[in-house]
Amino acid sequence: MASYSDVLEYLSALDYPAGKDDVIREAEREGAPPEVLRALRALPPVDYANGNEVARSAGIDAAPEVGRSQRAAQARDRHLRVSQHLRGI
Predict the structure, then answer these.
(1) How far apart are CA 44 and CA 70, in angstroms?
(2) If DSSP states are collapsed to H, E and C, what string results for 5-27?
(3) pLDDT tens readout for residues 22-56
(4) How far is Cα 42 from Cα 61, in angstroms, rounded to an integer?
(5) Handedness of CA 61, 65, 69, 71 (dihedral sign)
(6) DSSP state of 73
(7) Contact 54, 7 (CB under 8 A)
(8) Are 23 and 29 a contacting pair, CB within 8 Å?
């Protein structure tokens, strides 16, 4: 499976915004492995603003070290986006 950093590595020289075909062509030119190309070929045909948007659209997880149970716990935490000093208010 392709990683987030793999996708960004093979698209580092690409000028954005870029369409799906531009993204695939750049990855092929940079010698991306088959799993990266497979993920990029599955992209929706839209214009992408940057490499992070490409990786997210390809369904590649930015933080694979975070397990499912930890993600579920984070989703249940109602105060995830609130600063620590504001949690008691």
Answers:
(1) 29
(2) HHHHHHCCCCCCCECHHHHHHHH
(3) 999 999 999 999 999 999 999 999 999 998 889 88
(4) 15
(5) negative
(6) H
(7) yes
(8) no
